[in-house]
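Students often ask what a 'structure token' actually looks like in practice. Rather than answer in the abstract, let us consider Sulfurtransferase, a protein of 278 residues. Its sequence is given first.
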Amino acid sequence: MILNYAHPEVIVDTQWVAEHLRDPKVRLIEVDMNATAYESGHIQGAVFWNAFTTILQPNYRFNFDAKALEELLTQSGITNDTTIIVYGSHSAIAACVFWFLKVFGHNDVRVMNGGRKKWITLSRPMTSEIPTITPTTYIVPEPDSSIRALQEQVQAAIAKPETVLVDVRTPQEYTGEWFAMKPPLKDERAGHIPGAVHIFYELAQNEDETFKSAEELYTLYSSKGITPNKEVITYCAIGARSSHTWFVLKYLLGYHNVRNYDGSWEEWSRLDTPVELV
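Now compare that with the structural description of the same chain:
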């Protein structure tokens, strides 16, 4: 039984954020699929990132161009020593940015627990003022491939008893009733990777979108055979929601061998790969 988060330092509550709004070593990043919510009001000093135009490419694959990331971080006023706090309207997108920055080796990235919803629920102050950012110099280190799973690695893991594939999409996507987008993307097949265990990513959250306790999380995942002694590969449609489950397993529960398949269903469903329907 796991009673405490393995790495409690990677999540901060709204009080911590409120106390560090003027800390020059801290940069708040609000990330979303469009700027509508941000423009209606955001946390003071927060910089906005549009997930679809910053860390994702037009084909919904992650943009692993180090120069593009250096430019994004430089323009966001971030240095290699900055503490980055990520939040937004969707917990999965915040966790996705966390994972992406960890791939590129940023040392201090944290997620605001409960995100934008929690901040608003507590009636904490917001502003529509866009912050003035002084560009910095950021040097991206060598990427960490150990937290990524590639398609051939996923295929090799099918039916291996020491590895568990975790599909974190909605139940309807898992069974093949739904696609992530309507209409589905070109040539996309329905279903899931054979043998994948299904646990919808939102089950790791409370109603206010904060993370459940370590005990609750361990019970949730271990009941489906997702235990610390196994290699775990998470996936979803484009690698965002699966980043959330990756974050929970690796950082909150302390599982040592967890990777996110960022190609996810967007890639898998278009290749000559096996697909299972329920």
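One point worth highlighting: The chain has a mean pLDDT of 95. Ask yourself how you might have guessed this from the sequence alone, and why that guess would often be unreliable.
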